[in-house]
Amino acid sequence: MLYLFWNVGLLLLCILMESSCATLSPAGVNYEVVALTEIKKALHDPYNVLDNWDVNSVDPCSWRMVTCSFDGYVSALALPSQSLSGTLSPGIGNLTNLQYVLLQNNAISGHIPDVIGKLQTLQTIDLSNNKFEGKIPTSFEDLKNLNYLDVSYNNLSGTLPKISARAFKVLGNPLICGQGSENNCSAVYPEPLSFPPDSLADQPGAARKSHRMVVAFVASFSAAFLFIVAIALLLWWRYRHNQQIFFDVNDSIYGKPVLDWSRRKKIAKGTARGLVYLHEQCDPKIIHRDVKAANILLDEEFEAVVGDFGLAKLLDHRDSHVTTAVRGTIGHIAPEYLSTGQSSEKTDVFGFGILLLELITGQKAMDFGRGANKKGVVMLDWVRKLHQEEKLNLIVDKDLKNNFDRIELEEMVKVALLCTHFNPSHRPKMSEALRMLEGDGFAEKWEASQKLETPRNRAFEHAPQRYSNYVEESSLVEPMELSGPR
After folding, report:
1. Which segments within 13-152 are labelled E, that is strand?
2. Which of 37, 140, 192, 348 is most deeply packed, by most CB within 10 A?
3. Distances in Å between the alpha carbon of 59 and those of 30, 33, 99, 286, 344?
């Protein structure tokens, strides 16, 4: 049941990501994030109320003072009384699903962007008590769904466009409504409207409609509240029942039962299936960028689910890589990512190979080599050496007490070595790694890889062939968690 819950959660995550793809460019850039960032750049924000508007985000729905609809589009921009100055960027025209714009009681100046007239879903615009100047855009005449427009107490001028809003307030603009003006300002704002408009109550049947809306709101809020409570109770029960959600290869350093060989194989295959889904079945594909044992979720049946997407990146299937600041965990980061900052699905494959070695050895790549006997040795280099010397029995977790299949051990080690090849183009795709773990095509892939292991064919012949050299020669020599903004 819990396995189903976590898988449904992962599925919902990908569905939500896919549902927001309408706002993504082929490069994985969210147009609404770009639009909001342009708005932020044009404003002066003395109290940093917009500090969590991050251009590197995939989804702006968690940003302060931004509200999204159920399908993930920005529907409201509410920044009243925030001491903002500067100008209002035309980028607001790219928020094509906006219904409410509330910027009243600030000190925003400049012209009102013409492009607002293209936002056909707009219902309420309040720009009152600012320093806007120039004309009210005639494009506002095209806003057929507009209920409320308040531009009072600004420095606007010119003639009034024919606005179809139920309430249109322009009082306090001397160049429009001053003495001698030809504009009939008193005719365009019947009675002040609240939010939502009270005047709807004067219409036949409006009271019943209002009542139904209140009932619907209360019911929706109650359902959401109960859902949150249910999730909290489930997580609390899970904590009490298992005392741990994330998998740790060292659970026996804490007195917990040792994972037997069959469970370790099950975890390896479950993790591979999760990465296959992220790389080859999601659109856009998802690069996890921090594949390691500590980020694998297990249920009570030891089914594995990939977790912790804090460093994940979206990538179009036509793109081979993305260049970013290096983030992840030393010991799991692919050499090309360390040296160039380029991450791809093949960097996840490298991390998966290290994960297999963690499952086999029962040690974390981070902690490996800190003992007196293996000082300065990186796990991957150590395993490669013992594999060449045909001493694989020395790498197996002693807590297994020799209860493992020797043939399966050799195959899993070879899969790990294929996944951690220094040349990313020689690493298998995750779907190929999964098939090899299931016994399909393993011999052919290994034989093909051995033919490539000649000095003439190495793509990295001028680079150090020991993983420890990459770590030592990079600027990231500390055995530390490399986390932070994506």
Report:
1. 43-44, 66-68, 74-78, 85-86, 100-102, 109-111, 124-126, 131-135, 148-150
2. 348
3. 7, 7, 18, 14, 21
48 with 186, same domain: the answer is yes
The DSSP-derived string for 137-196 is PGGGGG-TT--EEE--SSEEESPPP----SEEE-TT-HHHHSTT-S--GGGS--S---SS
| Same structural domain, 232 and 140 | no
Of how many residues is the chain composed? 486
CB-based contact 288:349 (threshold 8 Å) = no
- Write down the pLDDT at residue 5: 42
| Sign of the Cα pseudo-torsion (270, 276, 281, 283, in order) | positive
pLDDT at 156: 93
Q: Residues 59, 198, 251, 290: which is the catalytic one?
A: 290
Indicate if 132 and 225 belong to the same structural domain: no
Summarize pLDDT for 297-343 with one digit per residue, the tens: 877 777 887 877 777 777 766 666 676 767 777 778 888 887 788 88
Residues 392 and 301 in one domain: yes
Radius of gyration of the chain (CA): 30
How many independent structural domains does the chain possess? 3
Residue 97: give the domain boundaries.
2-202
pLDDT score for 94: 92
pLDDT at 20: 43
* Shared-domain flag, residues 189 and 208: no
What type of residue sits at position 378? Answer: V
486, with CB counted inside 10 A (0-12, 13-18, 19+), is middle
Which regions in the chain score pLDDT beneath 70? 1-29, 58, 179-184, 186-218, 237-252, 254-257, 316-321, 323, 325, 366-377, 452-486
Terminal Cα-to-Cα distance of the chain (whole angstroms): 33
b/e per residue, 239-248, with b = 16+ CB within 10 A?
Answer: eeeeeebebb
Considering the domain architecture, whether residues 220 and 297 belong to the same structural domain is answered as no
Known catalytic residue at 399: no
- In this predicted model, what pLDDT tens digit does every residue of 110-165 receive, in sequence order? 999 999 999 999 999 999 999 999 999 999 989 988 989 999 999 999 888 888 88
Residue 285: what pLDDT?
Answer: 85
pLDDT for 297: 80
Other C-beta atoms lying within 10 Å of the C-beta of residue 119: 22
